[in-house]
Amino acid sequence: MYAVKHDGAAGHWMNVALFNWSDKPEDKTIDLQALGFHAGIHLHAFDFWEEKYFPVEAGVLEFKQIPPHGCKLLRFCEADGKPCLVGDTLHTAQGAEITEWRSSATNLSITTMDLEREATGSLWLWLPQEPTKVTVTGKPGSFKVQDGLSHIPLTFTGNAQVNLDW
After folding, report:
1. Is the dihedral of CA 18, 21, 22, 25 positive or negative?
2. Which of 5, 44, 73, 128 could form a disulfide with 86 if both were Cys (CB 3.0 to 4.6 A apart)?
3. Is the entire prediction scored with pTM above 0.90?
């Protein structure tokens, strides 16, 4: 297992990679308290490869049958009731590419760095309400709400400016 704490414009989070180095499927566990998460804390968790969200409380998580030489790349952050980046697929750091994060009672504005490529991916955001309007670099954007998260697909070159109203 490999764990990295991040602090950035998108808040505080931890990426955890679970590796199965064997030639057969294996179960793996993560002890979130051993990683510094306090007992009873509510967390958002996101699986980068499977693009899957799951809420958790600090404790022990078990992942069944990770494929041979497979990897789980997970992002954990506190579920504190504030607008939050739960996960993204723009970069494996899942949030380090965000350079600016401004939120108010009814709006969120996110700016990404220039990834020096045509970037295609998605943001998964926890918001206090469902968005009513999304723009990406000044143009109408799309979203869908799934599992209580707002899923925002993106394709851009250079920096992206994402604005959401709710």
Report:
1. positive
2. 44
3. yes
Euclidean distance between CA atoms 69 and 149, whole angstroms? 31
Query: What domains, with CATH codes, occur in the chain?
Result: 2-78 (2.60.40.1180), 84-165 (2.60.40)
Q: Is the pLDDT at 108 greater than 90, yes or no? A: yes
If you search the block for the tokens 């497979």, which residue do you land on?
A: 70
Q: Tell me which DSSP letter residue 103 carries.
A: E
| Residues 6+ away with beta carbon under 8 Å from 86 | 44, 46, 53, 75, 77, 124, 125, 126, 149
Question: pLDDT for 6-34, tens place per residue?
Answer: 999 999 999 999 999 999 999 999 999 99
Q: What is the mean pLDDT of residues 62-81?
A: 97
Q: How many residues does the chain have?
A: 166
What band does 100 get if pLDDT is binned at 50, 70 and 90? very high
pLDDT number for residue 147 = 87
Q: Of 52, 55, 49, which is closest to residue 20 (Cα–Cα)?
A: 49
Q: Contact, 32 vs 61, CB < 8 A?
A: yes
Give dist(CA 53, CA 77) in Å, integer. 12
Closest to 123 in 3D by CA, of 85, 76, 74: 85
Question: What distance in Å separates the CA atoms of residue 46 and residue 50, rounded to the nearest whole number?
Answer: 9
